[in-house]
Amino acid sequence: EDQRTAAPLAFATIAPVAADVDDVTVPRGYRWDAILRWGDPLFPGVPNLTATGTTAADQAKQFGYNCDYLDIIVDKGSTTKAVLVANHEYTNENIMFAPDTDAETIARTAWAAHGLSVVELRRAAAGKPWRYVVGGRRNRRITLDSTTFAVDGPAAGSTLLQTPADPTGKAVIGTMNNCSGGTTPWGTVLSGEENFHQYFYAAGTTPQEARYGLGTSGDSRRWRDFDHRWDATSAAGANEPNRFGWIVEVDPQNPTSTPVKHTAMGRLKHEGANVIIAANGKVVAYMGDDERFEYVYKFVSRDRYDGSGTAAARAKNKRLLSNGDLFVARFTGDGLEDGISDGTGVWLPLTKAGASVVPGMSIEEVLVYTRLAADTVMPTKMDRPEDVQPSLKSRRIYVACTNNSKRTATDIDEANPRPANKDGHIVEIIETNNSNTASTFRWNLLLICGDALSAGTYFGGYTGPVSPISCPDNLAFDSTGHLWISTDGQPGSIGLADALHHVALAGPERGRVRQFLAVPAGAETCGPVIHDKDGSVFVAVQHPGEDGSWEAPQSLFPDFVTPGSTPPGGREVRRPPTEHRPGH
Ligand code: FEO
Ligand code: CA
Ligand code: CA
Ligand code: CA
To answer: What is the superkingdom listed in this entry's lineage (predicted)?
Structure first.
């Protein structure tokens, strides 16, 4: 903290960290601590992890696995109370369970380990570390097998969403593969259901299944052995894949509220959704579909935001994402003669006023098979668009295109300018008249990522030294409008541990990338949450050591207890939070 004098979050750039360092590396003068770990009990009387892992019943009341989206929402008028919201994208069964655990226990526990957690936090005073509260009033686990989601919007109740267990097509049990997300101005949390295809066994013979990657291979978890809904070739499971791939909305302030799946926002492999209130009061959500050669989308609400702050206004705002128009982006380059990747773009409508604008497709088909609808209007195939986030300060939008190994020299374009793009890039979008409801925009590549050895790198015009950066994924802004970029894949692309980077967006340092932290071996950096006025940064350390095994772990984060210590694996040992403070 002694380094933080001039600005709220001044820091000395850290050196890049080798991929095998099993530690969190932070700048000089900072320290780090774990707030919540997989398996931490959220309710009184719930056990911790045991020497053999956990059970489905316990997991449903413990913090879940592999967090991606993260927010820490400080209570209004307080500096010492908050709720933490994290989602639990997927499970690493190979390191979660002792080898002799039976298959059904593994499956059922994994269902409970997916979903989201809402957990109350407390601290002694502003600037002190947050601690989580066992049994906090708002504590909640949302899981894949216990939580009912209401389906809303124009496709709710569609025959495409009906199943024998839910003939209404309006009530889905669970959410899964929740990747990134966003917190709305009305205080709810959005989360994207991303790679849902990998949980299903399907014939894969229809264009609809094929377009979403559903097929006979890939459901390595074999959940269909324990619940037929995961078998899309069965009557029970035929429409079940259509019930995932949505943006979900959760109200963390009300633990008994029913979370919602918003069909108006389309069905993709949703990375997440980030909302801004346009000047005319409509809310605009920006969204990525994270797969190679997929598209960037925007949703514009039918109704206007009510900022009066009353309970009635909040209830109204919670329905803003239920009705609106859906668009997909086409980026056109203006040529590379000017030396930069930039150009103009257009938002191509897929729905208007609750109706389809795609010939031959009903509104329900456009929303359930959004990728197929988008294909008809020729949007730009991007290099895996992950987080798409508007700056609330400048209203500009930033798209993290994480990488694309399959881009070839013949299909490059100015917005995706590198073949075999291993390092990714960041697109900056400026809407016409800076209006977020505009139908056209200008764009440029803020960053073309890489290290000193990568071809074609560009750092927003900044020519001084920068930190190497590869595979940008989750984005966030601090209160001063600087961009923070977390990475997922630096070990494979540039041989470095995944990182969190700070990037200036304006002034002479625009494009200057400075590394703030590195995550432990095998992990990607998720979150992030930047409370710069508080001198704090929060990240979700996802899948540390995921290529290891139960017997031979590759990461001991966050407790760093040696395997073979007593108790076995150290899995019942929790170090006091203040003992281990790397970074000093
Ligand atoms: Fe779950 Fe697109 O990362
Ligand atoms: Ca150009
Ligand atoms: Ca991601
Ligand atoms: Ca990623």
So the answer is: Bacteria
